[in-house]
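Data follows
____________
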Amino acid sequence: MQKKVLLIDDERLARNELKKLLQDFPEIEVIGEAANADEGIEKIESLNPDLIFLDIQMPGKTGFDMLAQLNSAPDVIFTTAYDEYALKAFEVNALDYLMKPIEPNRLADAIQKLQLAEEKEIAASLGGINRGTLTEADQVFVKDGERCWFVKLGEVRLFESVGNYAKVFFGNNKPLILKSLNALEERLDEKVFFRANRKHIVNLRMIEKIEPYFNGGLLLDLHAGEKVEVSRRQAVKFKEMMSL
């Protein structure tokens, strides 16, 4: 299946060189280019690429800053002059990092990773999903201070409201993002993510144990040890969904 690709790099020569290298891959179709982060956001929204080749260091906003502004990100392969030790400072689960100047064999490896990722995503997201809904196979970019992550939504076990922010629980991490729980609830797939109470949205696949709780509510034990109360009102809906 052909992949629509967008190149985002402030150096025109670097974009031209990469475009030339990509001609050897019939499964890749370059549909556009952008010279900075703002142009990149605009092109991502209008062209809806499957994959972006993204430079990290660009004038104005970095590639990481750009990703932090997207609601959901396509697959990303970074093209960068950063050395690999500097890259280790970023906890970003991108498909790959290509060091400039890009070597053809490393590019071939990255394209192969893309194909493997596609097979996994197809397996994870079968079924009809409303347009605009983020599925558990979608990845979101989370930036908290200097730390960055690419997270598949299926790996997030809990969202917790903290004022105008939401704390995102995945692995051993709990970064804050500038999103309200109501805004998140609108975008998340309700078959996977459930609004347990005013402060929490829980990933139904991460529940280990369900117990009765005060006033007709429920208490959910998650895989990583968090306990989340389901309010009495939401407990009725939860029981219907789970056929309890």
Summary: The longest strand covers residues 28-34. The chain is about 30% helix and 30% strand. The two ends are 42 Å apart (CA to CA). The CA atoms of residues 117 and 218 lie 37 Å apart.
